[in-house]
Amino acid sequence: MSIQINAAFDGGNIRLVAIDGDRVDLEIAQDHQSEFYQWFYFRVAGATGRKITYRIVNAGKSAYPFGWPGYKARVSTDRLSWRMIETRYADGVLEFDWAGGSQLVWFAYFAPYTMEQHDALVARIAAQPGVAHRQLGESLDGRAIDCLDIGSGPKPVWLYARQHPGETMAEWWMEGALEMLTDRANPVTTALLGKATFHVVPNMNPDGSFRGHLRTNAAGVNLNREWHAPSPERSPEVLCVRNAMDETGVAFAMDVHGDEAIPANFLAGFEGIPSWTEALGDKFYAYARRLADHTPDFQLDKGYEKSAPGKANLTMSTNQLAERFGAVGMTLEMPFKDHDPNPDAEYGWSPERSKKLAHACLEILADVIDTI
């Protein structure tokens, strides 16, 4: 039986270039109407009992080629458990081998979170007591922008993820957050929901998620550069979410992402916004310090450079929300590699650890909610 490569499924992305014996050359397809690409997810059949070398030959021209050194691809034979495998990067080519005995095997940039998984999550959480579901709007392809409202407290808290659809760890984090927020036996949850009302958007970019994009929506637009002036033509996903935020206000907001290069979890704040005050900034820094003290899966040493005074990019959601609402806003970044201060040699950074980090983030929010 010949080797067969397939990515024609929810979230899939790869293009076959050539098969030469036990070597398979592949390319990642660009996001539609965009030059961005880095996310891959594909299935292999017909390779049982053979050691095959897979080569992604256009990796060097991807959106973030500096993220490939030290990266390890994920592999699964059941689409449930995703382990890291040894991966090489040289001369612009990403390469890995597989000699497993299963009839089917899947490879991905990170453990996928498909739209089917998203729909199942929304259905499960919406059925829980005390949860109100809203469809805030539709994407360019007509998919629902789901929001789950939980709690009765006076502080409006917004959690939203997957503006960049290839950053699937972000929706794994959301699954963990939603499971904790619907666990009424948890005293931390009970206390938190009495002080805050949560508005949770698990997936801001369903079109890009289904299409197998790295960073953009169906029109090739980076949603996290649309928050100053979202439009129905380019970014209805942002427009409907920001409109809903205008109705509720925002006291605390977390935008959940993944980072290609930095092997650690970290937070980015809103330094440089025109209305920056030390008092507001101190609330963000205090949250980050407490989170680092609370879990070994978070750290303060690695991260992005801070914007200079007055130079914040207000097209980005965290900066826009801090400026627009005086919110304690932040962007959580999780790695495609591993959290090097606390590594896992088999799974690296993983869905399970993403979900646990969500619990830690909510536990710290419960500690500081009275100060926000």
Automatic annotation (TrEMBL):
The protein's GO terms of the molecular function aspect are: carboxypeptidase activity
- Among the Pfam families in the record, one is Peptidase_M14
User: What range(s) does the Peptidase M14 domain occupy?
Assistant: 111-372
Q: Which organism is it from?
A: Sphingomonas oligophenolica
- Keyword vocabulary terms for this entry: Carboxypeptidase, Hydrolase, Protease
Family affiliation: Belongs to the peptidase M14 family.
| This protein's name | M14-type cytosolic carboxypeptidase
Reported cofactor(s): Zn(2+)
Give the highest taxon in the source lineage. Bacteria
For this protein, the record's InterPro entries field holds:
Cytosolic_carboxypeptidase, Pepdidase_M14_N, Peptidase_M14
Catalytic residues of the enzyme? E333
PROSITE patterns cross-referenced by the UniProt entry: PEPTIDASE_M14
